[in-house]
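*** Backbone structure tokens ***
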Amino acid sequence: MDARLQEISSKGDVPALCRLLDEDPLLLDTLTVPTAENTPLHVASLLGHDDLACEILRRRPELARSRDCRGLYPLHIAAAKGRLLISKKILETDPSLSLCRDKDGRTPLHLAAANGHTALLMDLLPDDATLIGELLTERGETVLHLSVRYNQVETVKFLLENHKELVNLRDEKGMTALHLATGKRHIRMIKVLLQETSVDVNALNENGCTALDLLLQFPSDESDMEICDILLGFGGKKGLHCSPPIPQEPLHPMMPKPKKQKARKVWSRRPPRKKKTQSNRDPNWLKDSQNTIMLISTVIASTTFQSGLNPPGTGNTDDGYFIYFLVFDIIALVLSMSIILILISGLLSSNRFMTWVLTILLWTSVSSMALAFIMGANLLSKRRNVVTLLSLVLFCWLLLVIFLFSYYLVVFVMQLLKYFLNSCCSCNGDEGELV
């Protein structure tokens, strides 16, 4: 478009337009040729310059049928922006433009309804009332679908008063107006549809889902409880087969942008916990654990070796406590030396499971050394009260051993079950059909 026309259209300067056309009477004629640029009528409709639009239509009414780069007629823009006077002038010029469509199959009626310009609907509605249900977008949406999606309550009330047959019509995905209102969590819209119409509350979309299914399948905020009560109060039920809905396509450039809502607390489920993985741990944790096991095993081996060569008491081998002392001392010595031998040899040093086994062996060695100490203490003291005290200590130690053993056993069994379940899932996933 000519730069002078662009400036005049932006300012809405009618006298300047008249002077320019007096100088170059054919300037507007060049715009009647199909082009991908905006015309002055598009700009005037967008900015609401009523006088300028009327002057352009008086001089060149053919511009009412021109399209811009998005396939929009001037009437599309006027309807989307709610320009009542400009829309009427364009319709007076060519009434058939009320049914013109953009690249997405939307008529000016669709855009006016989506933006909530109820006053324009009477001028844009077709003369034959039965045709309104046949005015569908490329996605099979009616005027009511768009009004519900963008939460235009007053527009929906106007449409339902005059065209109640729209309430149960479905788009290409089988979604009714109630499906859309529930998916968008428009509580007031849901109440209008249920209370003022004969909407089918249990209508199924192409995935076999009712409005209640959409609500329960993807909960979003605390208003879901209220919506659930409303749907159940009107006989809402769950469908037999449900699958996740298909993601929606990007919005049309002339459609209103959805309002951003503050993040709300989800009432029906908690956010998943972040699992601890190997990558979250210290990369040297395995080596540090093995060094600690080596240090403790060395101390136990030295202690049990020394006590085995110099047993406590009188050295009476017939004493029962001496035999128990010797057995536990040997067990602690053998286990600790075995741990040292395994770590020195370097066998399976980088194996996590082997480190866990070494920990169990070390735990058993420590327990044996503690029991050997209790038996040795009984050898040194023959007093009854001391023996009773040591027996109580032995009993408490056994309880601790049983508790730790049970804990590690449960952890070990759970790890095995998890391993086998993951293996089964992997096997099932590999049995898919080859393409």
